[in-house]
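Figure 2 data, in text form.
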Amino acid sequence: MRVIEPPLFLLREISIIGVSEADSGESKLQHVTREQIEQIVRNEITGSYFTIDLAIIHQAFIKLPWVRTVQVHRDWPSGLKVMLEEHVVLAQWGSNALVNTYGEVFRATIDKELPVFIGPMEESSQEIARQYATFSHLLEPLRQRIAEIHLSPRYAWRIRLETGTVLELGREQMRARLARYTAVYDQSIAKLSQQGPLAYLDLRYPNGFAVRMPETMQSAPRKPGARKET
């Protein structure tokens, strides 16, 4: 999009360019609106080609909710180039923020159903995003999708699937435990869920699982006497 200034300004042309996070190529802006851009142009861009303050322009654009990075350059002989990278949303952070594909928390609104990340602090969002990718890949053969991933203050992991089933992974060997779940699902767990999704599976047992059926809401170890790990 190009915004042309009246001839009396030495700075005559401002180019607003969307940048893709994948390859730094140009992309269409999805969330930054023309109205937001025009307001910044009117209120913040003053001076000539040589006197304009690039830092002020950078600050004005970076404050927009969906902008992740900004690059501002003079474009000889009378132009200004503003390159904007928008956040690409991955998940919802709690109930009042979003997480982008870098695992960074940002605050914006979107009308879209997203997986929910819950953690003890915002700084844990990147670790949750990494584990979300790993867990999703492990669940892919079963076509099961994560609705919520929870990291407790003690760094124990829990997953809630879109079916409503909760998978307790604990603090150690999370990937191995989830891999074991997917490996035996068709042979054993799927039979238990024929009447509907299971309410809860505790995967922290070394030789089996604890299962809570939705009807009884009671746990029953898959292998009696198995000792639970953390």
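Caption note: Residues 174-192 form the longest helix (19 residues).
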